[in-house]
C-alpha cells in the first residue's frame, strides 16, 4: 500500500513534465499553425475528430461517475441482489444510432477534403507546376513550364496553387511541409499529385516523413514563398548565367574536371547530384549545415561524416584544390 502511495506522488511531476514538453519543438514545422488553405482544412479535420473523441470520452466518464455514485452501496444497505433487467430496444437503438451519426459527421468532411486535396492542378493555367524528385538524402525541384531546376530550396509565389508531381529516384520518401499541408509519399516508378498554397511571404521548413535510410532525419529542405513580382525576378536570375570572377576560375576548372558529371550549374541541368545553380544564395550546405567555408570544406572532404549513406563519394581533392572549389561555389550567386 505504501508503495502505491509513493507512486501517486509522481503524478504531479509527470503532469508538469508533459506541460513543459508542449512548449518544445520548432514552430516552423507545426501542423497546428497553418499558413495556407490546405493546412487550414486539415487542421479543421483534426479539431473535428478531436472534438468528437472528447465528447465521447466526457459523456462516458460522466455516465460512469453518475452510476458509480448513484448506485453505490451505502451503509445499512441489505445484501440483496437488485432486480435484473435484460435487454432494452430503446437503449440499443440509441447506442447504435449515436456512433453512426458521429461517424457521418467525421466521414463526410474527411472524404470531401481528401478528394479536394488530391485534385490534379497540373493543367491549371493559374497554378504553378513543380516536379519533385526525392533522392537519398536531398530534394530536386523542377519547374517544367519555366525551364528551371534547383535543389533543396523550393521557391514559390504566394496565393497561388502549387501543383506538385512527386516521385523518387531510389527508395520511398515522403514530402512534407507541415505549415502548408500534410505529407505525400514519393515512390520510385510512380507519380503522386497534390497541391499546396502559401498565404504570405515566409520561409517554411520541409522534411522527409518516411524512414528512408541512415540520414532520413537530415533530409530537410526549405520552402520560400514570395510575392509574384519577386518570384518572377528569382526566375529571371536563375536563368542568368553566373559570372565567374578571375580568382575563381581555377576552382571552376577543378569543378568541371571532378564534379560536373554529377552537378549541373545552369538553369535546367539535372544530374546524379543537386543542381548548384545559384548555390551561393542558399542558406544551408547539404540542407543542414550553415553556409560558410568551413561547412563546405567538411562536406567536400568527407560527405559521409555529414550525411551517412548519401551517394556523394570522396572526391579526393587536396586542401588547396578544395579551397579553390569553395571560392568558385561562392561565386555562383543569383544577381
From TrEMBL:
* Keywords assigned: Copper, Electron transport, Heme, Iron, Membrane, Metal-binding, Respiratory chain, Translocase, Transmembrane, Transmembrane helix, Transport
In the record's cofactor note, how is the cofactor described as bound? Binds a copper A center.
Question: Under which EC number(s) is this enzyme classified?
Answer: 7.1.1.9
State the similarity comment: Belongs to the cytochrome c oxidase subunit 2 family.
Name the reaction it catalyses: 4 Fe(II)-[cytochrome c] + O2 + 8 H(+)(in) = 4 Fe(III)-[cytochrome c] + 2 H2O + 4 H(+)(out)
Give GO cellular component annotations, separated by semicolons. Answer: plasma membrane
Q: Which InterPro entries match?
A: CcO_II, CcO_II-like_C, Copper_CuA, Cupredoxin, CuRO_CcO_Caa3_II, Cyt_c-like_dom, Cyt_c_oxidase_su2, Cyt_c_oxidase_su2_TM_dom
Domain Cytochrome oxidase subunit II copper A binding intervals: 125-237
Gene Ontology BP term (one): ATP synthesis coupled electron transport
Key word Thylakoid present: no
Give the protein's recorded name.
Cytochrome c oxidase subunit 2
Q: Where in the cell is it found?
A: Cell membrane; Membrane
Provide the Cytochrome c domain boundaries.
Answer: 246-333
Residues annotated as domain Cytochrome oxidase subunit II transmembrane region profile: 23-121
Q: Which PANTHER family match?
A: CYTOCHROME C OXIDASE SUBUNIT 2, CYTOCHROME C OXIDASE, SUBUNIT II
Which Gene Ontology molecular function entries are recorded, alphabetically?
copper ion binding; cytochrome-c oxidase activity; heme binding; oxidoreductase activity
Where exactly are the transmembrane stretches of this chain? 49-69, 90-108
* Cofactor or coenzyme needed: Cu cation
Provide the gene name from the record.
coxB
Q: Which NCBIfam families match?
A: CoxB
Amino acid at each position: 500500500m505504501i508503495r502505491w502511495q509513493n507512486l501517486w506522488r509522481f503524478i504531479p511531476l509527470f503532469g508538469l513534465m508533459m506541460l513543459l514538453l508542449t512548449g518544445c519543438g520548432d514552430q516552423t514545422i507545426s501542423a497546428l499553425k497553418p499558413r495556407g488553405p490546405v493546412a487550414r482544412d486539415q487542421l479543421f479535420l483534426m479539431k473535428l475528430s478531436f472534438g468528437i473523441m472528447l465528447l465521447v470520452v466526457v459523456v462516458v466518464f460522466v455516465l460512469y461517475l453518475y452510476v458509480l455514485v448513484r448506485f453505490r452501496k451505502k451503509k445499512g444497505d441489505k445484501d440483496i441482489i437488485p432486480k435484473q433487467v435484460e435487454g432494452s430496444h430503446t437503449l440499443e437503438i440509441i447506442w447504435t444510432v449515436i456512433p453512426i451519426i458521429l461517424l457521418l459527421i467525421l466521414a463526410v468532411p474527411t472524404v470531401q477534403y481528401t478528394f479536394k486535396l488530391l485534385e490534379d492542378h497540373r493543367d491549371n493555367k493559374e497554378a504553378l507546376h513543380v516536379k519533385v524528385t526525392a533522392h537519398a538524402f536531398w530534394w530536386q525541384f523542377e519547374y517544367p513550364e519555366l525551364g528551371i531546376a534547383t535543389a533543396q530550396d523550393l521557391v514559390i509565389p504566394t496565393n497561388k496553387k502549387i501543383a506538385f508531381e512527386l516521385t523518387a529516384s531510389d527508395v520511398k520518401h515522403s514530402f512534407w511541409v507541415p505549415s502548408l499541408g500534410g505529407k505525400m509519399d514519393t515512390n520510385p516508378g510512380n507519380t503522386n499529385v497534390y497541391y499546396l498554397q502559401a498565404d504570405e511571404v515566409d520561409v517554411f521548413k520541409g522534411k522527409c516523413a518516411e524512414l528512408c535510410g541512415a540520414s532520413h532525419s537530415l533530409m530537410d529542405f526549405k520552402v520560400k514563398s514570395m510575392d509574384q513580382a519577386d518570384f518572377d525576378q528569382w526566375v529571371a536570375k536563375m536563368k542568368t548565367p553566373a559570372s565567374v570572377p578571375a580568382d575563381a576560375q581555377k576552382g571552376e576548372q577543378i569543378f568541371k574536371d571532378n564534379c560536373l558529371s554529377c552537378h549541373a550549374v545552369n538553369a535546367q541541368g539535372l544530374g546524379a547530384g543537386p543542381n548548384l545553380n545559384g548555390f551561393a544564395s542558399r542558406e544551408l550546405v547539404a540542407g543542414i549545415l550553415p553556409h560558410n567555408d568551413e561547412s563546405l570544406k567538411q562536406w567536400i572532404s568527407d560527405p559521409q561524416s555529414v550525411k551517412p549513406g548519401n551517394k556523394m563519394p570522396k572526391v579526393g581533392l587536396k586542401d588547396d584544390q578544395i579551397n579553390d572549389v569553395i571560392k568558385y561555389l561562392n561565386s555562383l550567386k543569383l544577381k
